[in-house]
C-alpha cells in the first residue's frame, strides 16, 4: 500500500493546447494534463520537445531499423530500441562534426552584442568603461 501523508494532494487539470503553423496556418491540437497553475510557456516548451522526439523516431525507422523488430518481451524490445537510439546519437554527432559549425551571420553577432551589453553596464556607456 502507498504511504499516507497529511499534505493535500496537488490539483491537476485537463486542458487543450492549440498550435498554429506559421508556414501554412494549419492547426494542431494537444490535450494537456498538468498541475494547476502551470504557465502557458511551460506547456509550449514541453510540447515543443515532443516534436524533436517524434522526428527522431521517424528518422530512426527507415535509417536504423527501429521498426524492424519482432521481439516477444519488453526486455528484447527495450534492448533493440536502446541500441537503435545509441546508433542514432552516434550518427547525429558524426553528421554534426562533418557539417561543421553553422556560419555566423551579422544578425547573430548583433544579437550576441546586445545580450552582452544588456548585462554589462560598462558596455552600455563607453565613457564609463574601465580597463580590467
Quick synopsis:
With 132 residues, this protein is of the alpha+beta class.
- What string gives the helices and strands in order? EEHHHH
Mean pLDDT across the residues is: 77
**CA distance, first residue to last residue:** 63 Å
Class per helix and strand makeup: alpha+beta
Number of helices: 4
Number of strands: 2
Q: Rg from C-alpha positions?
A: 24 Å
Secondary structure: helix percent: 40-55%
The major pleated sheet works out as: 2 strands, antiparallel
The gross shape turns out to be flat
Kindly report the spatial arrangement of strands forming the biggest sheet. Answer: 1-2
Structural summary, described in words:
The chain is of the alpha+beta class and 132 residues long. Helix content is 52%, strand content 14%. The longest helix has 26 residues.
Describe the protein's topology.
Elements: E1 12-20, E2 27-35, H1 40-64, H2 74-99, H3 106-119, H4 121-124
Antiparallel strand pairs: 1-2
Amino acid at each position: 500500500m502507498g504511504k499516507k501523508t497529511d499534505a493535500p494532494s496537488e490539483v491537476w487539470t485537463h486542458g487543450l493546447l492549440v498550435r498554429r503553423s506559421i508556414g501554412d496556418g494549419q492547426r494542431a491540437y494537444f490535450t494537456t494534463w498538468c498541475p494547476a497553475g502551470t504557465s502557458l510557456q511551460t506547456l509550449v516548451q514541453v510540447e515543443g520537445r515532443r516534436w524533436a522526439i517524434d522526428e527522431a523516431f521517424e528518422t530512426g525507422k527507415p535509417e536504423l531499423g527501429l521498426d524492424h523488430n519482432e521481439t516477444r518481451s519488453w526486455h528484447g524490445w527495450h534492448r533493440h530500441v536502446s541500441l537503435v537510439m545509441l546508433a542514432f546519437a552516434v550518427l547525429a554527432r558524426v553528421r554534426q562534426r562533418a557539417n561543421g559549425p553553422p556560419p555566423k551571420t551579422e544578425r547573430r553577432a548583433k544579437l550576441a552584442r546586445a545580450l552582452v551589453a544588456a548585462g554589462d553596464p560598462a558596455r552600455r556607456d563607453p565613457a564609463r568603461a574601465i580597463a580590467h
